[in-house]
Protein backbone atom coordinates (compact mmCIF):
# COMPACT_ATOMS: atom_id res chain seq x y z
CA UNK A 1 0.00 0.00 0.00
CA UNK A 2 1.49 3.34 -1.03
CA UNK A 3 1.06 6.02 1.60
CA UNK A 4 -0.18 8.57 -0.90
CA UNK A 5 -3.06 6.37 -2.01
CA UNK A 6 -6.49 5.73 -0.55
CA UNK A 7 -6.16 2.61 1.57
CA UNK A 8 -9.84 1.77 1.98
CA UNK A 9 -12.88 2.84 0.01
CA UNK A 10 -16.56 1.97 -0.21
CA UNK A 11 -19.56 4.11 -1.10
CA UNK A 12 -19.80 5.37 2.48
CA UNK A 13 -16.30 4.89 4.02
CA UNK A 14 -13.02 6.41 2.80
CA UNK A 15 -9.66 6.05 4.57
CA UNK A 16 -6.59 8.19 3.79
CA UNK A 17 -3.21 8.88 5.35
CA UNK A 18 -3.47 12.10 7.38
CA UNK A 19 0.12 12.42 8.61
CA UNK A 20 2.84 10.84 10.71
CA UNK A 21 3.58 11.40 14.39
CA UNK A 22 7.15 12.26 15.47
CA UNK A 23 7.68 8.65 16.61
CA UNK A 24 6.73 7.32 13.18
CA UNK A 25 3.15 6.18 13.83
CA UNK A 26 0.82 6.85 10.93
CA UNK A 27 -2.37 8.81 11.49
CA UNK A 28 -5.30 8.13 9.17
CA UNK A 29 -8.50 9.98 8.39
CA UNK A 30 -11.75 8.07 8.06
CA UNK A 31 -14.71 9.64 6.27
CA UNK A 32 -18.21 8.25 6.80
CA UNK A 33 -21.25 9.32 4.83
CA UNK A 34 -24.96 8.56 4.77
CA UNK A 35 -27.53 8.56 2.00
CA UNK A 36 -28.61 12.14 2.76
CA UNK A 37 -25.25 13.73 1.97
CA UNK A 38 -23.97 14.08 5.54
CA UNK A 39 -20.24 13.40 5.87
CA UNK A 40 -18.02 13.14 8.95
CA UNK A 41 -14.25 12.70 9.05
CA UNK A 42 -12.30 11.41 12.04
CA UNK A 43 -8.62 10.77 12.75
CA UNK A 44 -7.06 8.32 15.17
CA UNK A 45 -4.98 11.08 16.80
CA UNK A 46 -7.15 12.03 19.77
CA UNK A 47 -10.12 10.14 18.24
CA UNK A 48 -10.75 13.55 16.73
CA UNK A 49 -13.67 14.78 14.61
CA UNK A 50 -12.04 16.95 11.91
CA UNK A 51 -15.04 17.84 9.72
CA UNK A 52 -18.82 17.44 9.59
CA UNK A 53 -20.64 18.60 6.47
CA UNK A 54 -24.29 19.10 5.48
CA UNK A 55 -26.31 20.78 2.78
CA UNK A 56 -27.33 24.32 3.69
CA UNK A 57 -30.48 26.19 2.66
CA UNK A 58 -28.90 27.39 -0.58
CA UNK A 59 -27.78 23.87 -1.54
CA UNK A 60 -24.11 24.40 -0.74
CA UNK A 61 -22.16 22.12 1.59
CA UNK A 62 -21.47 23.54 5.06
CA UNK A 63 -18.66 22.21 7.29
CA UNK A 64 -19.93 22.87 10.82
CA UNK A 65 -16.87 22.02 12.97
CA UNK A 66 -13.47 23.67 13.38
CA UNK A 67 -10.33 21.73 12.58
CA UNK A 68 -6.96 21.51 10.84
CA UNK A 69 -5.67 20.23 7.52
CA UNK A 70 -3.01 17.86 8.88
CA UNK A 71 -1.82 16.16 12.03
CA UNK A 72 1.13 18.54 12.52
CA UNK A 73 -1.29 21.42 13.08
CA UNK A 74 -3.17 19.38 15.70
CA UNK A 75 0.10 18.55 17.47
CA UNK A 76 1.28 22.17 17.36
CA UNK A 77 -2.03 23.42 18.80
CA UNK A 78 -1.24 21.73 22.11
CA UNK A 79 1.79 24.00 22.47
CA UNK A 80 -0.37 27.11 22.55
CA UNK A 81 -0.82 28.89 25.92
CA UNK A 82 -4.34 27.43 26.05
CA UNK A 83 -4.85 24.46 23.76
CA UNK A 84 -8.16 24.47 21.83
CA UNK A 85 -8.63 20.65 21.82
CA UNK A 86 -10.36 20.93 18.42
CA UNK A 87 -12.71 17.96 18.01
CA UNK A 88 -10.83 15.60 20.32
CA UNK A 89 -11.97 13.16 22.99
CA UNK A 90 -11.13 14.51 26.45
CA UNK A 91 -9.99 12.28 29.33
CA UNK A 92 -9.31 10.82 31.74
CA UNK A 93 -11.17 13.66 33.35
CA UNK A 94 -12.87 16.42 31.35
CA UNK A 95 -12.87 19.80 33.04
CA UNK A 96 -10.96 20.91 36.11
CA UNK A 97 -9.86 18.96 39.17
CA UNK A 98 -9.12 21.23 42.13
CA UNK A 99 -5.42 21.24 43.08
CA UNK A 100 -5.00 18.21 40.82
CA UNK A 101 -5.94 15.72 43.50
CA UNK A 102 -8.76 13.53 44.71
CA UNK A 103 -9.33 10.75 47.26
CA UNK A 104 -10.64 7.23 46.66
CA UNK A 105 -11.27 5.07 49.72
CA UNK A 106 -8.94 7.16 51.86
CA UNK A 107 -6.06 7.19 49.37
CA UNK A 108 -5.04 10.54 47.90
CA UNK A 109 -4.02 10.66 44.25
CA UNK A 110 -1.97 13.64 43.06
CA UNK A 111 -2.19 14.32 39.34
CA UNK A 112 0.02 16.39 37.08
CA UNK A 113 -1.05 20.04 37.14
CA UNK A 114 -1.35 21.71 33.76
CA UNK A 115 -3.69 24.64 34.50
CA UNK A 116 -2.05 26.72 37.21
CA UNK A 117 -2.68 24.94 40.50
CA UNK A 118 -5.19 22.58 38.92
CA UNK A 119 -5.54 19.74 36.42
CA UNK A 120 -7.53 20.41 33.24
CA UNK A 121 -8.78 17.91 30.63
CA UNK A 122 -6.64 15.01 31.83
CA UNK A 123 -3.33 16.75 32.49
CA UNK A 124 -0.22 17.40 30.41
CA UNK A 125 -0.95 14.65 27.91
CA UNK A 126 -4.64 13.82 27.91
CA UNK A 127 -6.57 11.58 25.55
CA UNK A 128 -6.78 14.34 22.92
CA UNK A 129 -3.05 13.85 22.27
CA UNK A 130 -3.14 10.05 22.35
CA UNK A 131 -2.68 7.66 19.43
CA UNK A 132 -5.90 5.65 19.23
CA UNK A 133 -6.26 2.38 17.37
CA UNK A 134 -8.98 2.15 14.77
CA UNK A 135 -10.77 -0.96 16.03
CA UNK A 136 -13.71 -1.31 13.67
CA UNK A 137 -15.05 0.38 10.52
CA UNK A 138 -18.54 -0.44 9.26
CA UNK A 139 -20.21 0.76 6.07
CA UNK A 140 -23.74 0.37 4.84
CA UNK A 141 -26.69 2.00 6.56
CA UNK A 142 -25.68 4.00 9.63
CA UNK A 143 -21.89 3.68 9.06
CA UNK A 144 -19.72 3.73 12.18
CA UNK A 145 -16.15 3.69 13.42
CA UNK A 146 -14.72 2.50 16.74
CA UNK A 147 -11.50 3.88 18.23
CA UNK A 148 -9.85 2.23 21.23
CA UNK A 149 -7.17 3.40 23.64
CA UNK A 150 -5.54 1.87 26.69
CA UNK A 151 -4.39 4.40 29.26
CA UNK A 152 -1.63 2.79 31.29
CA UNK A 153 -1.73 2.76 35.07
CA UNK A 154 -0.08 5.89 36.40
CA UNK A 155 -0.58 7.91 33.21
CA UNK A 156 -0.76 11.50 34.47
CA UNK A 157 -0.78 9.70 37.89
CA UNK A 158 -4.32 8.34 37.51
CA UNK A 159 -4.80 4.93 39.16
CA UNK A 160 -5.60 1.79 37.17
CA UNK A 161 -5.13 0.73 33.57
CA UNK A 162 -8.12 2.05 31.67
CA UNK A 163 -9.41 0.69 28.36
CA UNK A 164 -11.74 2.97 26.39
CA UNK A 165 -13.78 2.48 23.22
CA UNK A 166 -15.35 5.44 21.44
CA UNK A 167 -17.91 4.68 18.72
CA UNK A 168 -19.00 7.32 16.22
CA UNK A 169 -22.07 6.55 14.11
CA UNK A 170 -23.60 8.57 11.26
CA UNK A 171 -27.30 7.74 11.00
CA UNK A 172 -29.60 8.02 8.00
CA UNK A 173 -31.50 10.64 10.03
CA UNK A 174 -28.48 12.99 9.98
CA UNK A 175 -27.38 12.29 13.53
CA UNK A 176 -23.89 11.97 14.95
CA UNK A 177 -24.01 9.38 17.73
CA UNK A 178 -21.12 9.12 20.19
CA UNK A 179 -20.88 6.21 22.59
CA UNK A 180 -18.12 5.78 25.15
CA UNK A 181 -17.45 2.59 27.09
CA UNK A 182 -14.60 1.90 29.49
CA UNK A 183 -13.31 -0.48 32.16
CA UNK A 184 -10.42 -0.28 34.62
CA UNK A 185 -8.06 -2.60 36.47
CA UNK A 186 -8.25 -0.44 39.63
CA UNK A 187 -10.74 2.02 41.04
CA UNK A 188 -10.23 5.34 39.26
CA UNK A 189 -12.08 8.51 38.23
CA UNK A 190 -13.40 9.02 34.73
CA UNK A 191 -15.20 11.76 32.83
CA UNK A 192 -15.10 11.69 29.03
CA UNK A 193 -16.40 14.24 26.55
CA UNK A 194 -16.05 15.38 22.95
CA UNK A 195 -14.57 18.82 22.37
CA UNK A 196 -15.81 19.88 18.93
CA UNK A 197 -16.40 23.55 18.20
CA UNK A 198 -19.61 23.89 16.17
CA UNK A 199 -20.61 26.66 13.80
CA UNK A 200 -23.75 26.19 11.72
CA UNK A 201 -22.77 29.01 9.36
CA UNK A 202 -19.57 27.14 8.51
CA UNK A 203 -16.25 26.76 10.30
CA UNK A 204 -14.76 29.94 8.77
CA UNK A 205 -17.60 32.17 10.02
CA UNK A 206 -18.74 33.45 13.43
CA UNK A 207 -21.33 31.89 15.74
CA UNK A 208 -22.48 35.36 16.80
CA UNK A 209 -26.14 35.77 15.93
CA UNK A 210 -26.96 32.07 16.02
CA UNK A 211 -29.74 31.00 18.38
CA UNK A 212 -28.78 29.00 21.50
CA UNK A 213 -31.20 27.06 23.71
CA UNK A 214 -30.11 25.25 26.90
CA UNK A 215 -32.76 23.37 28.88
CA UNK A 216 -31.35 23.91 32.37
CA UNK A 217 -32.57 25.79 35.42
CA UNK A 218 -29.25 25.72 37.29
CA UNK A 219 -25.53 26.08 36.64
CA UNK A 220 -22.52 25.23 38.76
CA UNK A 221 -21.17 28.09 40.83
CA UNK A 222 -17.40 28.40 40.33
CA UNK A 223 -14.51 30.30 41.84
CA UNK A 224 -12.48 32.92 39.98
CA UNK A 225 -10.28 30.18 38.48
CA UNK A 226 -13.19 28.03 37.35
CA UNK A 227 -13.32 25.48 40.19
CA UNK A 228 -16.84 24.48 41.35
CA UNK A 229 -17.63 25.71 44.86
CA UNK A 230 -20.17 22.92 45.34
CA UNK A 231 -23.13 25.28 45.11
CA UNK A 232 -25.74 25.55 42.36
CA UNK A 233 -27.01 28.85 40.96
CA UNK A 234 -30.46 29.38 39.49
CA UNK A 235 -30.36 30.81 35.96
CA UNK A 236 -33.67 32.68 36.23
CA UNK A 237 -33.22 36.40 35.57
CA UNK A 238 -29.53 35.95 34.72
CA UNK A 239 -27.50 36.01 31.50
CA UNK A 240 -27.17 32.21 31.80
CA UNK A 241 -30.88 31.60 31.19
CA UNK A 242 -31.23 30.14 27.68
CA UNK A 243 -34.40 28.15 28.32
CA UNK A 244 -36.36 30.34 25.92
CA UNK A 245 -33.41 30.87 23.61
CA UNK A 246 -30.94 33.68 23.10
CA UNK A 247 -28.06 34.72 20.91
CA UNK A 248 -24.76 32.89 21.34
CA UNK A 249 -22.71 35.02 23.77
CA UNK A 250 -19.26 36.28 22.85
CA UNK A 251 -17.83 34.48 25.87
CA UNK A 252 -19.16 31.68 28.08
CA UNK A 253 -17.50 28.91 30.09
CA UNK A 254 -20.36 27.40 32.10
CA UNK A 255 -21.53 23.99 33.30
CA UNK A 256 -25.31 23.65 33.03
CA UNK A 257 -27.03 21.13 35.33
CA UNK A 258 -29.22 18.67 33.43
CA UNK A 259 -32.31 17.14 35.02
CA UNK A 260 -33.99 15.08 32.27
CA UNK A 261 -31.85 12.87 30.02
CA UNK A 262 -34.87 11.87 27.91
CA UNK A 263 -35.33 15.35 26.48
CA UNK A 264 -33.16 17.59 24.30
CA UNK A 265 -30.65 19.37 26.51
CA UNK A 266 -29.57 22.09 24.09
CA UNK A 267 -29.88 23.30 20.52
CA UNK A 268 -28.20 25.68 18.09
CA UNK A 269 -29.88 27.27 15.06
CA UNK A 270 -28.61 29.39 12.17
CA UNK A 271 -31.09 31.50 10.25
CA UNK A 272 -28.43 31.99 7.57
CA UNK A 273 -28.01 28.33 6.61
CA UNK A 274 -31.29 27.02 8.03
CA UNK A 275 -29.39 24.34 9.94
CA UNK A 276 -30.41 23.29 13.44
CA UNK A 277 -28.44 21.04 15.79
CA UNK A 278 -30.12 19.42 18.81
CA UNK A 279 -28.11 17.81 21.61
CA UNK A 280 -29.16 14.77 23.65
CA UNK A 281 -27.13 13.04 26.36
CA UNK A 282 -27.33 10.74 29.39
CA UNK A 283 -24.80 12.87 31.26
CA UNK A 284 -25.35 15.19 34.23
CA UNK A 285 -24.09 18.35 32.58
CA UNK A 286 -23.42 20.14 29.34
CA UNK A 287 -20.53 22.56 29.52
CA UNK A 288 -21.02 25.41 27.06
CA UNK A 289 -17.83 27.11 25.92
CA UNK A 290 -17.20 30.07 23.61
CA UNK A 291 -14.07 32.23 23.57
CA UNK A 292 -10.71 31.78 25.22
CA UNK A 293 -7.17 33.05 24.68
CA UNK A 294 -6.11 30.30 22.27
CA UNK A 295 -7.56 31.96 19.20
CA UNK A 296 -6.46 34.85 17.01
CA UNK A 297 -3.24 33.14 15.96
CA UNK A 298 -4.70 29.89 14.66
CA UNK A 299 -4.88 29.13 10.97
CA UNK A 300 -7.44 26.40 10.48
CA UNK A 301 -8.37 24.13 7.61
CA UNK A 302 -8.95 25.69 4.19
CA UNK A 303 -6.99 28.74 5.34
CA UNK A 304 -9.65 29.84 7.86
CA UNK A 305 -8.55 32.30 10.53
CA UNK A 306 -10.09 31.17 13.81
CA UNK A 307 -11.05 33.75 16.43
CA UNK A 308 -12.87 33.94 19.76
CA UNK A 309 -16.34 33.44 18.27
CA UNK A 310 -15.45 30.89 15.59
CA UNK A 311 -17.26 28.06 17.37
CA UNK A 312 -19.25 26.87 20.36
CA UNK A 313 -18.63 23.68 22.36
CA UNK A 314 -21.31 21.46 23.87
CA UNK A 315 -19.24 19.31 26.24
CA UNK A 316 -21.66 16.68 27.57
CA UNK A 317 -20.10 15.22 30.71
CA UNK A 318 -20.17 14.79 34.47
CA UNK A 319 -19.52 17.86 36.64
CA UNK A 320 -15.99 19.26 36.77
CA UNK A 321 -14.23 18.38 40.05
CA UNK A 322 -16.96 15.86 40.93
CA UNK A 323 -14.46 13.55 42.73
CA UNK A 324 -14.03 16.29 45.36
CA UNK A 325 -17.74 16.93 46.03
CA UNK A 326 -19.70 14.13 47.70
CA UNK A 327 -23.08 15.53 46.59
CA UNK A 328 -22.05 15.70 42.91
CA UNK A 329 -22.82 12.73 40.63
CA UNK A 330 -20.44 9.81 41.14
CA UNK A 331 -17.23 10.05 39.10
CA UNK A 332 -15.51 6.91 40.42
CA UNK A 333 -15.30 3.92 38.10
CA UNK A 334 -14.71 0.77 40.14
CA UNK A 335 -12.84 -2.29 39.00
CA UNK A 336 -15.42 -4.66 37.48
CA UNK A 337 -17.80 -1.83 36.55
CA UNK A 338 -18.40 -0.49 33.06
CA UNK A 339 -18.59 3.17 32.09
CA UNK A 340 -21.30 4.08 29.57
CA UNK A 341 -21.83 7.54 28.11
CA UNK A 342 -24.07 8.36 25.14
CA UNK A 343 -24.47 11.67 23.34
CA UNK A 344 -26.38 12.47 20.16
CA UNK A 345 -26.09 15.51 17.90
CA UNK A 346 -29.12 15.63 15.61
CA UNK A 347 -29.09 17.91 12.53
CA UNK A 348 -31.94 19.13 10.37
CA UNK A 349 -32.88 21.74 7.81
CA UNK A 350 -35.24 23.79 9.96
CA UNK A 351 -35.66 26.79 7.67
**Taking Cα atoms only, what radius of gyration do you get, to the nearest Å?**
19 Å
| Alpha carbon gap, first and last residue | 45 Å
Average pLDDT confidence is: 94
Q: Give me the CATH architecture, please.
A: Distorted Sandwich
Helices, by number, come to 1
Outline, from the CA principal axes?
globular
Major sheet details: 9 strands, antiparallel
Q: Indicate the CATH topology.
A: Beta-galactosidase, Chain A, domain 5
Strand order of the largest sheet: 12-13-14-15-31-25-24-19-22
Walk me through this protein's architecture.
This protein has 351 residues and is mostly beta strands. It has a single domain (8-349), classed as Beta-galactosidase, Chain A, domain 5. Helix content is 2%, strand content 43%. A hairpin with a 5-residue loop joins strand 24 and strand 25. The radius of gyration is 19 Å and the shape is globular. The protein starts with 7 loop residues before the first strand and ends with a strand. Residues 1-9 have low confidence and may be disordered.
Attribute tags:
disordered N terminus; Beta-galactosidase, Chain A, domain 5; 351 residues; 1 helix; nine-stranded antiparallel β-sheet; mainly beta
Please outline what is shown here:
With 351 residues, the protein is mainly β. 2% of the residues lie in helices and 43% in strands.
Topology (SSEs and partners):
Blueprint (H helix, E strand, L loop, with lengths): L7 E2 L3 E8 L5 E8 L5 E5 L4 E8 L5 E3 L7 H7 L11 E2 L5 E2 L3 E4 L2 E4 L8 E2 L12 E6 L5 E8 L10 E9 L4 E10 L3 E2 L3 E2 L2 E2 L12 E4 L3 E5 L5 E7 L11 E2 L4 E6 L8 E4 L5 E7 L3 E6 L7 E2 L5 E2 L5 E6 L14 E2 L5 E11 L2
Antiparallel strand pairs: 1-2, 2-3, 3-4, 4-5, 5-6, 7-17, 8-11, 9-10, 12-13, 13-14, 14-15, 15-31, 16-30, 18-29, 19-22, 19-24, 20-21, 20-23, 23-26, 24-25, 25-31, 26-29, 27-28
Amino acid sequence: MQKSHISYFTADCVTKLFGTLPGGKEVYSYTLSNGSGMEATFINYGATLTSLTFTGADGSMVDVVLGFNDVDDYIDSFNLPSAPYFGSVIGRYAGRINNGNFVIDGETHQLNKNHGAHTLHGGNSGFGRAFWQMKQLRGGLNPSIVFTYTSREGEEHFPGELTIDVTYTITENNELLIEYTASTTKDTVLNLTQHSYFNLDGHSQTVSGQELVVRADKVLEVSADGIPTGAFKAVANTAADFNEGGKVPSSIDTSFVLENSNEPVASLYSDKTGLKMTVYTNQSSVHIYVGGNCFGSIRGKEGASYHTTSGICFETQNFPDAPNHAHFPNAVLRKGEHYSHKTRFAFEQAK
